[in-house]
Amino acid sequence: MLHSTIDYVPNKEIADVLGVVRGTSVRAKWFGADFLSGLKNMVGGELTQYMNLLSEAREKAMERMDKDAEELGADAIIGMRFMTSQIAQGAAEILVFGTAIKLKK
Fold first, then answer.
1. What are the Cα distances from residue 86, in Å, to 5, 18, 27, 32, 91?
2. Would you state the pLDDT for residue 50?
3. I need a labelling partner for 18 at 20 to 30 A (CA). Which of 30, 71, 84, 100 fits?
């Protein structure tokens, strides 16, 4: 699946706009990672456990968005955006959305 954060695919013509597609993933902190990150906060540095957690959440959300687009028969997704929000103490949601399109052959 082609992904674009702009509203077109360079050097391609849009044949049809199929609609908005989206994918979401909700992840919670793991106690061990939380403990290790707390230690890291005291000495400074990158919180790799959280970085990995959010990276996995983004990938899962994109997989779900792609599945949504494939069910519509899309060739690409344009105008793709990510959003994140805290939905509970220690849990975050990643939402990715865009417009599914069919490209001219």
1. 24, 30, 10, 20, 6
2. 74
3. 84
Structural domains in the chain (count): 1
What does DSSP say about strands 14-28 and 76-88: parallel, antiparallel, or unpaired? unpaired
SS (H, E, C) 25-67: EEEECCHHHHHHHHHHHHHCCCCHHHHHHHHHHHHHHHHHHHH
SS3 at position 70: helix
For the domain that residue 90 is a member of, what is the CATH number?
3.30.110.70
- The low-confidence residues of the chain, meaning pLDDT below 50, are 31-33, 37, 40
pLDDT value for 45: 67
Using DSSP's 3-state secondary structure scheme, residue 15 falls into strand
| Separation between Cα atoms, residue 37 and residue 31, nearest integer Å | 10
Q: Which domain holds residue 82?
A: 2-103
For residues 37 and 50, give the distance between their C-alpha atoms in angstroms, rounded to a whole number. 8
- The span from the CA of 59 to the CA of 27, in Å, is 12
